[in-house]
């Protein structure tokens, strides 16, 4: 593993985490562990108001840090945004959010890292270039490769507009055919715009491009 992407195993009160050795290399989708509500400040469950005693123990949700009884904080759910190695205890509300995010990590992120091919137009240019677009392995950059090469830092992207076709007044299905991306170049306050258009020829694989655009739409949320 290269030095920039190297990871280390750390133990926290919440569990084991596999995190980047250097904070600058962390994923933009990551979350910091929350501070736990001190035991002395939570004599009762923060969900059902059950009083804690020798029988009713208190548990902290690993995502929000609040204090709950076992009934209100019994689920152990994967939490990839905090880099936990194993599923961790979470309250019911946080568990629902984490379950949705796990699907994003298992499906959409993999699609983005595998990449897809688009015609890319920079700014107001009338010329487009065929490029392979993918998310970098550390999830920090959108990488575009063709005759030219671009690396756009995810945190510098300000807007993502997905372009679709096929809408009908009766509510027919739409299909993603492209994307307009606006981002800031480091050192500049001005926005740069790129337009991505799925190729019409068979070799560009429309289905793959549509799946990649759908995943990018998830990222923008």
TrEMBL record:
UniProt GO molecular function: zinc ion binding
InterPro entries the record matches: FYVE-type_Zinc_Finger, ZFYVE21_C, ZFYVE21_C_sf, Znf_FYVE, Znf_FYVE-rel, Znf_FYVE_PHD, Znf_RING/FYVE/PHD
Span of domain FYVE-type: 39-94
Entries under PROSITE patterns matching the protein: ZF_FYVE
SUPFAM superfamilies named among the record's database cross-references: FYVE/PHD zinc finger
Alphabetically ordered keywords of this record: Metal-binding, Zinc, Zinc-finger
PANTHER family per record: ARRESTIN DOMAIN-CONTAINING PROTEIN D (PTHR39490), ZINC FINGER FYVE DOMAIN-CONTAINING PROTEIN 21 (PTHR39490:SF8)
Name of the protein: ZFY21 protein
Organism, as annotated: Donacobius atricapilla
Organism placement in taxonomy: Eukaryota, Metazoa, Chordata, Craniata, Vertebrata
């Amino acid at each position: 593993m290269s030095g920039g992407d190297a990871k280390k195993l750390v133990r926290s009160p919440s569990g084991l985490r596999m995190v980047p050795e250097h904070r600058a290399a962390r994923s933009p989708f990551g979350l910091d562990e929350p501070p736990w509500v001190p035991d002395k400040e939570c004599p009762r469950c923060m969900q059902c108001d059950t009083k804690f005693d020798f029988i009713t123990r208190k548990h902290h949700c690993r995502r929000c840090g609040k204090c709950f009884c076992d009934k209100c904080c019994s689920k152990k759910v994967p939490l990839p945004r905090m880099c936990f190695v194993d599923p961790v205890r979470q309250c019911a509300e946080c568990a629902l959010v984490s379950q949705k995010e796990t699907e994003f990590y298992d499906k959409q992120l993999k699609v983005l890292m595998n990449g897809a091919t688009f015609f890319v137009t920079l700014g107001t240019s009338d010329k487009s270039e065929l490029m392979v677009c993918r998310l970098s392995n550390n999830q920090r950059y959108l990488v575009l490769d063709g005759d030219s090469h671009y690396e756009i830092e995810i945190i510098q992207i300000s807007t993502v507009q997905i372009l679709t076709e096929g809408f009908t007044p009766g509510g027919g299905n739409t299909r993603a055919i492209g994307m307009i991306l606006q981002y800031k170049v480091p050192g500049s306050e001005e926005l740069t715009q790129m337009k991505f258009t799925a190729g019409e020829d068979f070799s560009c694989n429309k289905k793959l491009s549509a799946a990649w655009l759908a995943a990018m739409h998830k990222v923008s949320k």
